[in-house]
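Hey, quick one: can you model this chain's 3D structure?
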Amino acid sequence: MSDEEPARRHNGRIHQDSGSASAALPSGIPRPWWIYQGTGRPLHDVSLEEILPPPPPWRAFGGVSACPVEGNGRSGALSDADDAPTEPPAPPEDEQDTARRLGATPLGVRSDPEEADLVNAALILRRPLLVTGRPGTGKSTLAYRISRELGLGRVLRWPITTRSTLRSGLYGYDAVGRVHAAAAGQASEGDTHEPGPEDIGDFLQLGPLGTAMLPHRLPRVLLIDEFDKSDIDLPNDLLDIFEAGEYSIPELVRIRRRRPAVSVLTDDPDRSTVIASGRVRCRAFPVVVITSNGERDFPPAFLRRCLQLRLPDPDADRLAAIVAAHLGRADDPRARELIQMFLERSEREGGLAADQLLNAVYLVTSQSHVPGPEWEELLQAVWHRLDSAAGST
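Sure thing. Here's the predicted structure for all 393 residues.
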C-alpha cells in the first residue's frame, strides 16, 4: 500500500497495511488503541460508530431528539414507545472550508505521538481538549484534521472575543425582530393581539456550542477558538454545560405547555432542528478543541476536566508537508530553500506562523522571481514578528 492510501480496519482495530506510511513516517508505528491516526486520511471501510468505545458511565448523557406528532399539526417530545431515537440531520460537509485550512490533500506525515495520544484519549473519555502553543503552530487546524479523518462533517467554530458569553455560544434570540414582525403583521391585518408562541422559532437560532450539544448519533467537532480572549467567568460557565451535557432555552421553557416542541435554526447553514420543552441534551458528546495562546491562566476546576496538549513548532518535514498540501510545490528547490530560511528566521524572531511560509512560497513559485534587495525587503514584511515588538524593530 502506498503512503496515500487510507487507514483500514483489522480485527476491530485501525492500522496501516504492511509497507504503509507508518514505517516511513517520522513518528513511527501507530499505537494499537488509536482511533484517530493523525495522518489526515479519512477512515476507509469502517465508520467511527463501529470502532469508538462506549463512553464512561459518568460521561453518558443519552439525549434524544424531538419528533413531529402526526395528526394535530404540532410537534411533541419523543415518546418512550418509539423503537429508536431520532436524531438531527447528519452534519453537512464543508470541503471548501476544510481544503482552505488544511489543503486539498492530506499532509503525508503522521502527527506527533503525544498529539495522537491526547486526541484519542479525549475521544474515548468524552473530554474537551485544551490545545496551547504559539500562534501559527496549527492549533485551530487540529479540529479540521480530526473532522476530516473521522468523517464528522462541518466543523462548528466559535470564535471567542471579550464580549462572548455562554448564551451567545448556545443560542441567539432576536426579541426585537420578533416584536417588529408582530407589529407589521398587526398593522396589515388590523389585529391588536400580542405575538403568540407559534412564530418564536423564526427568531431563535442555535450557536456553535448549542448545535454541537444536539443529540447527534456521532459527535460533532466544536472548535472554541482563542479562548484567552474570553471573559473571566466564561470558563466556569462552559464547564457547567460540559459536565451536565445539556442546557435549557428559557424562552422555550416558558411556552412549553402551549408549544411542547419548536423548530429552530441551527448554526449549520439552512438547517433546523426541533427542540422539546425548551431543553437540549446531547447524545454523543462533541469533540471539543479549545485553543489558547497561553496568555492567561484558567481556573483549576476547568483545567482538571480538560486534557491539555501543547503543540510544538513544526519542523522542516511538517512544513514541507504543509506546503505540499496547500500548494503542491514542496519539491521545488525554491520552496525547500525558503523552508530552511523560514526555520532560521523563526528561531531568530521567536517564532513565525506556518501561513507566513505559505505566503512566501506562493509569491516565489507563482511569479517570475529574481533575488535582490527588493525581495529581501518583501520577505522582511511577509515574515514579520508576531508579538508587540514587531513594530519597534
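One thing worth noting: Residues 163 and 352 are 28 Å apart (CA to CA).
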